[in-house]
Amino acid sequence: MSAFTKVLLLGFLLHSDQCDKFKATLPQNIKALQGSCVTIPCSFLIEKTHKENLNSKCKAVWKDINDNTLLDPKQETGDLTQKNCTTTFHEISPQHNQKYFFRLDCNNALQFTFKESGVIIQVKAAPPILKLTPPTVSVSEGESVSVQCSAPVPCLSLPPTLTWSPVLGHIQETLQEQQDKTYVKVSTLTFTASHLHHKNNITCSAVYSHAVQASVHMTSFVTYRPTNTRVTVSPSGPVTEHTNVSLTCSSDANPAVQHYHWYKADGGTHTLMGNSAVLHMKASRETTVIYCEAENELGTENSTVTHLEIHYPPRNTTVSLPAGPVTEHSHIMLNCSSDANPSVFYWYKADGGTHTQIGNSSVLNMKASRETVIFCEAQNHLGTDRSGVIKLDVQFPPQIVSLSSKCSGDSAQISCVCETEGNPFPLIHWSFPGVSPNTSISSEPLSDNALRSVLTVIKPQWRDSVTLVCHSTNSLGSDTHSFDVPVFEQETISKGDTMTVVFISLRVVSLLVFPCAFLVMIRSVNRHHNHRHHHHRATDMVVMEQLPVSNEMQTANSDEDFENAEN
Ligand SMILES: *[C@@H]1O[C@H](CO)[C@@H](O)[C@H](O)[C@H]1NC(C)=O
Ligand SMILES: *[C@@H]1O[C@H](CO)[C@@H](O)[C@H](O)[C@H]1NC(C)=O
Ligand SMILES: *[C@@H]1O[C@H](CO)[C@@H](O)[C@H](O)[C@H]1NC(C)=O
Ligand SMILES: *[C@@H]1O[C@H](CO)[C@@H](O)[C@H](O)[C@H]1NC(C)=O
Ligand SMILES: *[C@@H]1O[C@H](CO)[C@@H](O)[C@H](O)[C@H]1NC(C)=O
Ligand SMILES: *[C@@H]1O[C@H](CO)[C@@H](O)[C@H](O)[C@H]1NC(C)=O
Ligand SMILES: *[C@@H]1O[C@H](CO)[C@@H](O)[C@H](O)[C@H]1NC(C)=O
Ligand SMILES: *[C@@H]1O[C@H](CO)[C@@H](O)[C@H](O)[C@H]1NC(C)=O
């Protein structure tokens, strides 16, 4: 039991016994801050006989050991009539560093110095020591933590200002009376522990008068499950397919992460790939979406997904064409695609051996032309790949090539050649205003879109010059070409002179063959109507009839492919 407690206990006993002795209760010593003020808690008892003398005129005087009075014009004293001798002195200086006794001076018979109990004022230049309770924090994340900072209050009228750094949560301040009646200011900081508070330096500071500052700090320890889980990729940035790449999973955790798991999330499924902090793998375009999971005894956390950008050279470069044939001169759009990352695209026109660049993006807008032979090329820093050469199915109405279309021959035989181009594949019809008994037509395809038809007249027997007409037709239109064939005099055939054939009795012969020709014509008309559905042999197609107009012969190729192309 401390001396002070004994005094208190004694005071209590005396008081309860209605003991009428002079007794002052005050701390044995009190710390004061130099330049500041100090409050001496004090209470007293007096003899009963002096009860009437204790009045408002009484004064509190403080004497040192040499009976000198502590003089302070701003001295504040409690209500003496309530036996409260608590006194505050200002501007404490080192000379106040001594023992003082309370003297009650009521300007009457009641004048008493309480020599039994004095207080030693300990004047300090340094601020008082602050106390943190508890001295350290060791909690799990999520728990509520309360830390108290206690600062002595030497002077009640100038209590210190307490601040926390950082301000982690809610702060509550109280003034607490100690057993020795002095006060401490208590600031309680309450917060919910988070991983962010781990190893925090929590500081409590007290500012006393004259900006004298005291502080105390501690470090908090918080255990928490993995947080801030993240993936770093080496090398960073895009990686070339099939090269080595390392992924590192890191996470903040206390205690440290115990297990790592790697998952790939391509295609919606999550596949385990590894169980160590660092994942070594070969870059693959099948593995681009990756995340890791970190685990300690308190829990797990997944990183956000990391998207690997995999670079690979162009392959499978293809051109997507409009569905079906296109009409010449119409606007068309072609797309080039390639398995490539990254990719830039170029388009080339293939003109024989030379290639002319005609575009530099994946989409090519152009006018359809029958000569269009193009390809596209995908490029990146890893390589180049070309599509196949593309020939568009460009449709155009028939055109007869006049340069190649002509007649030649003599009185024995005349051959007229009609060459035409068209897509869909054209049909050739011949017409002329007379008929020869010996006429044959043969046709041969020159290319996918070109046809040559040869009309041969054996021993032409017309009297006037005639006009043979070649008609080329397809679903988009038609073209015609007229051949003016002169009369060849049979008797005056001269070698080297083409077209010198005399025909004499064409009409007679025509009349002779007319019934036959008429039948053939009817067949021909039927075929003409059905020519899209039937296969005809060129040799079946000879048509002769006498009508001045509409003498027609159809010709088509016997080749199956041509027939298909026509349809
Ligand atoms: C005594 O007086 C002081 C100063 O006026 C005051 O702060 C304190 O509360 C009083 N004590 C009691 C017990 O009334
Ligand atoms: C904590 O803060 C105090 C006051 O700011 C400083 O003196 C001390 O060095 C700090 N301690 C650590 C571990 O940072
Ligand atoms: C890639 O990794 C494999 C094994 O993981 C190793 O053998 C090889 O040397 C590495 N290649 C390079 C270029 O580092
Ligand atoms: C992390 O990912 C794994 C695998 O997909 C999954 O099983 C687990 O639930 C995830 N954890 C969290 C915390 O989301
Ligand atoms: C090209 O495409 C084909 C068919 O889609 C595929 O089988 C092949 O693997 C592809 N080649 C490359 C290199 O991507
Ligand atoms: C080409 O791509 C565009 C969009 O990029 C699309 O609208 C168009 O239909 C594609 N054309 C072909 C022929 O694939
Ligand atoms: C692509 O072609 C356009 C027009 O032909 C041209 O203006 C542009 O500069 C070209 N861009 C590149 C990247 O070659
Ligand atoms: C038709 O020509 C053939 C041979 O080219 C000949 O044998 C035949 O007599 C001719 N017919 C007529 C009616 O002139």
UniProtKB/TrEMBL annotation:
| RNA-binding listed as a keyword | no
> Which Gene3D superfamilies does the UniProt record give?
Immunoglobulins
- The residue range of the signal peptide is 1-19
Q: Which UniProt keywords apply?
A: Membrane, Signal, Transmembrane, Transmembrane helix
Q: Does the keyword Transit peptide apply?
A: no
Per UniProt, residues of the Ig-like domain are 128-219, 226-306, 314-395, 398-486
- Transmembrane annotation, as ranges: 501-522
- PANTHER family assigned: B-CELL RECEPTOR CD22-LIKE-RELATED, SI:CH211-171H4.5-RELATED
Please report the name of this protein according to its UniProt entry.
Answer: Ig-like domain-containing protein
The record lists the organism as Mugilogobius chulae (yellowstripe goby)
